[in-house]
Design a protein that fits this description.
It comes from Kuenenia stuttgartiensis. The protein is mostly helical and about 210 residues long.
């Protein structure tokens, strides 16, 4: 009995492996990969219309490309043909299809760019605390202090951008008033009084005549 069960198990397992190998063989012949063989997607009419619209009208070109790849998939095109038509690799096609599987149309609209973090960010708290206590007068001074605190030398543009990012801004400095010339001030006042007196006399003469 055990021998029969073991033979049955081996037979079934062999058939399963045989089917899988056959599927891989078909993939090689027809230019499919194993992801394409395993991933099955049922597109709704609403999604197909949305894909067709967004591939032309979405404002971002990367999202347009995603929508176009999925639209071709909805039309039954194989991965290698989609890659050829859209100018992307088969792996990227697979990635887009997985995104659609995970979150539909809205997931395809997400744009995630790699943004390397500045090395200055590792010293953010140290720099911020120091400048809160000792605000730099000039950008040149700020560059020197940052280099002394972190060992990192950065350009004026990079430092200005970093300081803005952590909430530190340049202060607007007003000009210091020059020293008042007392003699000129008195002469100006006297001149104003004289003009005022002349104006009043003219007005009085008009009233009398």
């Amino acid at each position: 009995m055990l021998n029969l069960l073991f033979y049955f198990y081996i037979s079934i397992r062999g058939r399963i492996y045989g089917i899988l190998y056959y599927m891989v063989f078909l993939g090689v012949i027809f230019g499919l990969n194993h992801e394409e063989i395993m991933i099955k997607i049922a597109f709704t009419e609403e999604d197909i219309k949305a894909l067709n619209y967004e591939r032309y009208h979405h404002p971002h070109p990367r999202v347009q490309r995603k929508m176009e790849a999925l639209w071709f998939k909805s039309q039954g095109e194989p991965y290698n043909k989609i890659a050829q038509l859209t100018g992307i690799s088969i792996n990227v096609v697979t990635q887009y299809i997985k995104e659609y599987q995970d979150g539909g149309i809205e997931k395809l609209k997400e744009i995630n760019f790699y943004r390397p973090e500045s090395k200055l960010s590792e010293h953010k708290q140290t720099i911020e605390n120091y400048f809160r206590e000792h605000p730099p007068v000039t950008m040149k001074e700020a560059i020197g202090v940052i280099e002394k605190l972190t060992g990192l030398k950065r350009s004026e543009k990079q430092v200005a951008k970093f300081l803005k990012k952590i909430g530190l801004h340049r202060r607007k400095v007003g000009t210091i008033p020059s020293k008042v010339n007392v003699d000129e001030q008195e002469a100006f006042k006297k001149n104003v009084r004289t003009l005022s007196q002349r104006s009043r006399r003219r007005e009085k003469n008009r009233i009398l005549y």
